[in-house]
Amino acid sequence: MNILISQRDEKTAQYIANGLKELGHRTNYVESLETIKVLESLTSYDLVILDTNVDDISGIEICRYIRQQSKHTGIIFISNDDEIQIKLRAFEAGADDYLIRPFAFLELVARIKSVMRRKDHVVSDDENILKVGSLVLNYHTRQVKRGDKNIELTTKEFLLLEYFMKNKNILLTRTIIKEHIWGIDFINDTNIVDVYITHLRNKIDKGFDTKFFYTIRGAGYMLKG
């Protein structure tokens, strides 16, 4: 899963991120809750882990904003605030769960699994499918087709294509792509993005007159459709 983390305590955020990475999840940590509002693709996250307040900004208001953007994104609060009124406000804003610090990491994992099971249950087949022209991606079955052609992708290629399709006709810089697909700690001077774009072009665009992937010289890449 792709998980966004925002906590007032950076050590707690790092503890959560390290544990989730070991389980194979991709994590992105943002220091400011306000940053969440300007993320280019908030809906690309499967789960957001919030605090009630970070730098005097209300996590509950950010939760409400996220829920307005996507009803399928999981939202879990981890906070020191144990007052029932705060918890009620969080749930009314759209939170799926609320966990009090200190907490056991295994309990967090169990709650994440429970939240995501509920989310998976309410998502219909149509909502599992992304379409851009003749390109179809089913992120539940992990199948990709262009017209009648089945396309075999590696896990990273699939995640990258999904990210582009969710952001079609939007310029994505190499830095943004690295942060969302490989994590914010990934080495900045690598050409890994260019390599994977080449893989996707060979598998998706090769042999077709109409191209999906375009290079925006000096800026990044775009999937047009």
From TrEMBL:
Residues 127-225 bind DNA. The keyword Transmembrane does not apply. GO terms for cellular component: cytosol; protein-DNA complex. Keywords: DNA-binding, Phosphoprotein, Transcription, Transcription regulation, Two-component regulatory system. Residues 2-116 form the Response regulatory domain. Pfam families: Response_reg (PF00072), Trans_reg_C (PF00486). Residues 127-225 form the OmpR/PhoB-type domain. It comes from the Bacteria. The modification 4-aspartylphosphate is found at D51. One of its GO terms (biological process) is regulation of DNA-templated transcription. The keyword Transferase does not apply. GO terms for molecular function: phosphorelay response regulator activity; transcription cis-regulatory region binding. InterPro entries: CheY-like_superfamily, OmpR/PhoB-type_DNA-bd, Sig_transdc_resp-reg_C-effctor, Sig_transdc_resp-reg_receiver, WalR-like, WH-like_DNA-bd_sf. This is Response regulator transcription factor. The lineage of its organism: Bacteria, Fusobacteriati, Fusobacteriota, Fusobacteriia, Fusobacteriales.
